[in-house]
Design a protein that fits this description.
With 205 residues, the chain is mostly helical. It contains ten helices and no strands.
């Protein structure tokens, strides 16, 4: 007979994942041990293994859990049926705010994905591709000609270049908060998007 789960089982799992993400983010996945995760979580090592079978399982759950949240944000905004400009602005601002509360998990996703086994890496990359497609589709609705020129995904990646690395320089005690930066990022992108020109067609020799 399987061991019964306590009423706060899922809460404890989330707490462990948060502690593991903080450790992975500060000292790297290879440099973190299950002993350290157990100590940070206030658990014995045998108890920790009741929740996660090994350190690799923690990595997969952190990375996949984070990217699934981002994918959910895209789907929620799409379901709101906003006008194209409002939808894209909503996505941008929600992403900035999501990163504000998930800096450790985001660092793990961006820096430790190389330690994932291929099936797990491909599955997580599949979620990331859906996120990119959601933003690219929103840009395409604003400027269809950019979609025809296959520029919406490159522009999405340029946008992510602005926000994906905010965790490296935005500080909780800094002069500018994520709440203040979120509309600024959207303003920068919307201000520049109309100026994007179509590239010259390269003629084959």
């Amino acid at each position: 007979m399987g061991r019964n789960r306590s009423a706060n089982y899922e809460d404890q799992r989330e707490a462990i994942l948060a502690q593991a993400a903080a450790l992975f983010a500060s000292q790297g996945y290879p440099g973190t041990s299950m002993n350290q995760v157990a100590a940070a979580s206030g658990l014995s090592k045998p108890t920790l293994y009741h929740y996660f079978k090994d350190k690799y399982a923690l990595l997969v759950h952190i990375a996949e859990g984070h990217v699934k949240v981002l994918e959910q944000v895209v789907m929620e905004v799409e379901a709101m049926k906003l006008k194209p400009d409002a939808a894209l602005r909503e996505m941008i601002e929600r992403f900035v705010m999501e990163y504000a509360g998930a800096a450790d998990a985001h660092r793990v996703l961006t820096e430790d994905v190389r330690f994932l086994q291929e099936p797990d890496r491909q599955r997580i990359l599949g979620h990331e591709r859906k996120v990119v497609e959601g933003f690219a589709d929103a840009i395409a609705l604003l400027r269809p000609e950019l979609d025809k020129a296959h520029l919406t995904k490159p522009l999405t990646m340029l946008l992510f270049g602005m926000i994906n690395w905010m965790f490296t320089w935005v500080r909780a005690d800094g002069h500018v908060t994520h709440e203040q930066l979120a509309p600024m990022v959207a303003d920068l992108f919307f201000g520049g998007l109309p100026a994007v020109g179509l590239p010259a067609i390269k003629r084959k020799r």
